[in-house]
Amino acid sequence: MTSNKFDIGGPINSATFVKHSETRMMTDDYNIVKEIGEGAYGKVKLVTHKKTGIQRAAKLISRKHVKEEEEKLLFEEVSILMKLDHPNIIRIFHVYQEPRNFVIVTELCSGGELFERI
To answer: Is residue 114 part of a domain?
Structure first.
């Protein structure tokens, strides 16, 4: 089921191919391999897509830490990122609205923290 929270209308772009679900769980489509990061709002997990075997990163944002106004900003940011297609901007593949978490599945960028490299 596709949500109306993300505006992906208009010309075909990368957002056209991002899957958004309010009814499915991330684990319906991905196997969790391990935790690879943690922040103030949640955790990042290394996941493997069940059908393709491709590894990706899943950012789990705890709903209990997101206020209503922050949720709106989160959806706006994800909506913008879904439309972008640039080699220096991480791609979003799936967005899930689970009972306990918002889950954003992105391409996996290995090699450590960007802050440490700078």
So the answer is: no
Question: What is the predicted pLDDT for the residue at 82?
Answer: 81
Q: How far apart are CA 116 and CA 103, in angstroms?
A: 25
CATH number at residue 29: 3.30.200.20
Number of domains into which the chain is organized: 1
- pLDDT interval class at 22 (50, 70, 90): low
**DSSP characters over 62-90:** EGGG--HHHHHHHHHHHHHHHH---TTSP
Whole-structure pTM value: 0.76
Q: What radius of gyration, in Å, describes the C-alpha atoms of the chain? A: 14
